[in-house]
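# step 3/5: fold
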Amino acid sequence: MSQGNLCFAVLATMLAVPAVRKSEVEIRQFDKRTVKLRKIETPPAVFFPVQSRNPRDLGPGKLLVASRELADPNFAKTVVLLVHYDTEGVVGLMLNRRTDLPISRVFAQLEAAKGRSDTVYLGGPVGTPTVFALLQSTENLENAEHVFGGIYWISTKTALEKTISSSPDPGIFHVYLGYAGWTTKQLTNEVRLGGWFIFQADNQTVFNANPDSLWRQMITKTELNMAGCPTIAPTGAEQCAAQSGRMCQLFVTTSE
């Protein structure tokens, strides 16, 4: 290889433990210099979730990250969690449009809501007088729709009031005004036209501690030139590059 030793790190899932790879020691001539391709031990790599732009990947528990080209002011720079998806339609909740309205005002008639200063979110442009919630729970919730993992979508007044009465921690309970809605065909077309990136949701993203910067965090992941690189660079010149969004290349050379 004219560019040095090529180390392919096969992408694992987010929860997989990256394996340690070693390159073989060889001696080659490069630009009239003797270049030793050193034996290196790559440290643990940070793997980012690989995004998709394939409508087939749509479904409950998926995140929609608005592309920079999405001009609709209702959805520009938003991150949306899909909570319901079937042939009849799609429902999502915007995760990063936090308001200044506290839960205590939204549920002013509910004794258990008094004193709750955690604010509600704008869930979407549709049905803004309607209130929904997301809750992370280790138990199955009645009258709530399971979205993914331990995340549930609460959409009825009775279930909402019951949940608030249990005093859930703000870190695992968010309230939303309104929702984002599409027909299945409509959302499919928007994805095909490049309006959205699709990610698998996770608890940390859904209940992000800094929602105002969430879109920037997510859109940066879509624009990285690599899917994963070592967290600690070995000595020498290195370069990581993506191979079809699936591989990471690592070049290491040392001159003698």
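# step 4/5: annotate
DSSP finds five helices and 18 strands in the chain.
# step 5/5: archive (pending)
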